[in-house]
Amino acid sequence: MLLELQNISYKRDGKKxxxxxxxxxxxxxxxxxxxxxxxxxxxxxxxxMGIKKTDSGxxxxxGKDITNLSINERANLGISFAFQQPVKFKGITVYDLxxxxxxxxxxxxxxxxxxxxxxxxxxxxxxxxxxxxLSGGELKRIEIASVVLRKSKLTIFDEPEAGIDLWSxxxxxxxxxxxxxxxxxxxxxxxxxxxxxxxxxEVILIKNGKIVNIGTSKDIIDKEIINKTCCKLKxxxxxxxxxxxx
Length: 246
What we know:
- The chain is of the alpha/beta class.
- The chain has 11 helices and 12 strands.
- The strands form 3 sheets. A 6-stranded mixed β-sheet has the order 6-9-10-3-11-12, with helices on both faces. It has a 4-stranded antiparallel β-sheet with strand order 2-1-4-5, with helices on one face.
């Protein structure tokens, strides 16, 4: 067992955001977490990373109680977190960023190999500055490359589709589909997109701060979303199906 959440609850401004969450996640799994807006998805993964502190409960990672550990301590144990909007670094090149992420000296050739694996033409990007001249899709791929170099036991992506266009998103799906080969560990992705749910080993559905179902993408989409839930994911599924050619 890689990660276990025991009775995790979180309340802010008198509102219960997470309500007694219990969850076990195995080693070498690709997990998607979905649910309506405001259901507590982002709060849950931020608690796993230590960005937010749980009000009650325990977090066990790789057999160790990390409930009271800092973000840096969790990162050193092997947890990585990718935000919805990748951070820009004025004056820092892509190569600089990858060297820092890898925590060891890497050559430009090694950096280029990693960039190629996430679908970027390495020669065009390795010396570019990580700033606003890069598109959302380019920044996402560079962030994934940096995550690959960290070789974390657990990698968390918070809505990687946020802020990028449809073309970039469709290209990113290929990268995430090959995530097992890129990242040797467990991946958790928060998403409303059916294409991402379809490549997951398991989909976790959260509503009103509670886990209401865990299953395959088909189980969750057919039984819980299309038939029961009026939410962002349901609208995204309709949009994706309407975009498919006849």
